[in-house]
Amino acid sequence: MSNSSSLWSDALSRLLKNKAAVAGALILVILITLALLAPWIAPYPYAYQDLDLGASAPSSAHLLGTDVLGRDLFSRILYGARISLLVGFIATTVALIIGVSWGIIAGYFGGKIDSVMMRIVDVLYGLPFIIFIILLMVIFGRNLWLLFLAIGAIEWLTMARIVRAQVLTLKNQEFVLAAQAMGVSNFSMFRRHLLPNILGPIAVYATLTIPQVMLLESFLSFLGLGIQPPMSSWGTLIKDGVESMEEYSWLLIYPGLTFTITLFALNFFGDGLRDALDPKTSD
Amino acid sequence: MLSIFFKRLLLAIPVLIVVASITFFLVRLAPGGPFDAEKAVSEQVMKNLNEVYNLNAPLSEQYFDYMSGVLVGDFGPSFRFPGRSVTELIMTGLPVTFELAIYSMLIALFIGVLSGVIAALKRNTFLDYIPMSIAMIGICVPTFLLGPLLVLIFGINLELLPVSGWDQLPGDKILPSITLGFAYAAYIARLSRGGMLEILNQDFIRTARAKGLSETRVITKHAMQGGLIPVVSFLGPAVAGLLAGSFVVETIFQIPGLGRFYVEAAFNRDYTMILGTTIFFSFMIVVFNLLSDMLALWLNPRSRDV
Known about the structure:
heterodimer, A: mainly alpha, 73% helix, elongated, B: mainly alpha, 76% helix
């Protein structure tokens, strides 16, 4: 146990030395707090329209201006953050659950089970998933939860490969053999013995999956196939911004900036985490 | 080499059949018939419509009819464009999308490989930091944001380039190609930097230098061949990304390509068009994945004789 705690504290001290990663983490903390507190700190409700005002440039009443319907952009970005981050976390969790269980089972049992399971992963890798998601959204309507599930269900493949590779190196080590000799059940073998030892790579890959998932959601929303009005994610805000960018460029620039900064923060934090947890693989 | 190729080819066939079948049944699962949105029509007309589109036959018969059509490249009629077949629509859009993809990929390869190789050679100098920071931007700024921003700057504010269209005004291909290519340039720069760094530390590079070969020759002849393998393996999966990117870029720049047809078909619920293009896209992706894997294998001397 002391060994594992020193691994994590070593990693933490390495992480803290990485300025880009710390900055990324700070931005994320601020962003998540703002998103959680949106109903209390947003100056206006997200659907509140001031049709007399229409689109107005940033001012003291409307920090980032208003859109064509007179809705406060700052409030809409705050509420959009809730949807965008929610998609990021939920879809990543779905990917995590599928990928980790798949990888552990394939790696631990090995043999025929392993080769069949990994062959399925290989085959799925070759499929045009983005097109399937569009297909699902068209056929079953633009349902928020379906979107979460569908995105999560396509992002688990790499996770399964990473976990399997880790389990393969672990399963012949003494502690696993000892646990087997003591008659530990498969489930508690996974949960108590294998999982704690592969948390590092899982955490790293999960952090790097979140920005991919958020990109995918905003891509779909941009095409009009994701989040539907009056709800808004950053993707739909950017879409709205593009439609009126010739006259009201701030409607494109601020949501775009927020989204880009968030992706930067997530990527820097993820890279930093990878370097901290596994100094050998850093490039 | 050849046996691996045939093994992979054999694997690709069931994949394509599965994709086509899943798509076919998913589309049939869709609630409501394809003509529900139309104005109310008499029962007879509806019956005739279903007759024309072969919707009265039992599902299994429809399935086999459709699949045998697909085998010879016939994707059936379009629901939304009466009188035009899906194959015809695909063939109209494909050359445009293909041209766009080629330009983007050329831009991406040129900028990406050049800056990646230079960054690796001049590691930890400004020639490394600056291109790599720009690459990070390229990865974090999504296509659907980059495109409109470029339009805003070069099209609307500076009035240098046309803001939309394809093959209509001089220079209207520049912005879409850059928009689509930029993210790939970024990935390729990172991949080639990583690949080159790994190779440059190896013994055979030191040997080549010790033999007195010129540095240019060491880099272009010895290092780049191995160092760029990651880039070659990336090209296959990149095709899938290019297709997805073309949905966005063709929508932004109003380009009459396959990507925009697909998005429009998704909006219009043109099920046969969606079905046909999905199968067609899958086919392209599987083929390009196979090709880039084979090329990467061939470039790697250790696997060449297998």
